[in-house]
Amino acid sequence: MPRVVVVGTGGTIAGSAPTAAQTTGYQAGALSVSQLLDAVPALGTVARIAGEQLASIDSKDMSLALWLQLSKRLDSLLASDEIDGAVITHGTDTLEETAYFLHLTLKSAKPVVLTAAMRPATALSADGPMNLLNAVSVAAAPVSHGRGVLVAFANRIHSARDVTKTSTFSIDAFDSPEAGPLGWVHDGRVEYGRRVEHRHTVATPFRLARSAAAPVTDAVLHDALEPLPMIGLVTSYAGASRVPVDAFVAAGAAGIIVAGTGSGSLHHDLQLALAEAVERGVIVVRASRVGSGHILRNGSAADDRLGFISAGTLSPYKARVLLMLALAAGMREFDVLQAAFDTF
Ligand code: ASP
Predict the structure, then answer these.
(1) Which residues line ligand 1 (CB under 6 A)?
(2) Could you give the domains of the chain?
(3) What is the pLDDT at residue 221?
(4) What is the CA(82)–ligand 1 centre distance, in A?
(5) Helices (H), the chain
(6) Any idea which residues carry the catalytic annotation?
């Protein structure tokens, strides 16, 4: 039987409310990972399970320190011959950011699957137990190897690169808007419909800790990853203000992601502030607030000439994760950074 480790970090999947009718006003991360595992005896028919509690937080409070801890812990668990795959239970709020951070930093081809829930564990028709069973099925399946970090939610399997939370309350709360899901999981059956094209896990240079398996040539870049640099996030809108850009520059941000309108277009006041930021050595990346689509380069020649990088299909939140890692790994030149956004 495959051996799967389930790492608990908190979230609504481990949430507890005073009554079964309550789906708001609960405490996220109240239950331990062993309580979650005990509630799903069917897990034992899919894999040999070990549980580990790494944190018990509401994922709105996710920190960079916890990301680093999670990535390093998973790398060491996955390096063991005793583990075939890992599942992470997480809150839905920042799940897509954690998933993409791990997608870029983990150095294993073994399946790593995040899952979560929209209803607390104590609720009527809680969605967590089935999501957990499906996530373990995905992590235990040999066909899941080499696909990067996955998210199993509401019977769909998504890539960490593409997935995003699309509903504040529906139990079908995640989607991969531009690319579609990678596959599906039903009653223990795991099926994939496509592969991830952008590079991930073992094929990125973002290594947090030197592992015994790492080639010597691949080790140097990555000792510089900590502390991760400050990257600001600003939005364009009617009547946009340059105040947040100036504040981030004054605070010493190494980069700024701008969630532009449409295909990453920018209010002229914001564009001017960002162009001045570039002149002061701050890296600026254009993403979009729209939620799907691509940041087209040929339509925004002025932005390209001003030295703004295109996030391509990455959301502003994931663009921030990639820029943080790229700058920490010593990438500075426009062409190198743009290539990173096109590659990862
Ligand atoms: N606030 C919760 C969290 O992200 C929401 C959830 O898990 O659905 O931890």
Answers:
(1) 11-12, 28, 58-60, 91-93, 116, 118
(2) 3-203 (3.40.50.1170), 229-343 (3.40.50.40)
(3) 44
(4) 31
(5) 33-38, 64-78, 95-105, 128-140, 243-250, 268-279, 301-305, 316-328, 334-343
(6) 12
Q: Measured between alpha carbons, how far is 324 from 314 in angstroms, rounded to an integer?
A: 14
Cα atoms in the Cβ-side hemisphere of radius 13 Å centred on 200: 24
CA distance 27 to 121: 10
**What does the pLDDT read at residue 225?**
59
Are 30 and 14 in contact by the 8 Å Cβ rule? The answer is yes
Rounded Cα distance between 218 and 232, Å, is: 29
What per-residue confidence (pLDDT) applies to 71?
A: 95
CB 101 within 8 A of CB 67: yes
Question: Do the Cβ atoms of 292 and 263 come closer than 8 Å?
Answer: no
**Residue 222 confidence (pLDDT):** 47
Instruction: Spell out, as residue ranges, where the chain has pLDDT lower than 50.
Output: 212, 214-224
Residue 304 burial by Cβ neighbours in a 10 Å radius (0-12, 13-18, 19+): middle
Rounded to the nearest whole angstrom, what is the distance from the C-alpha of residue 319 to the centroid of ligand 1? 22
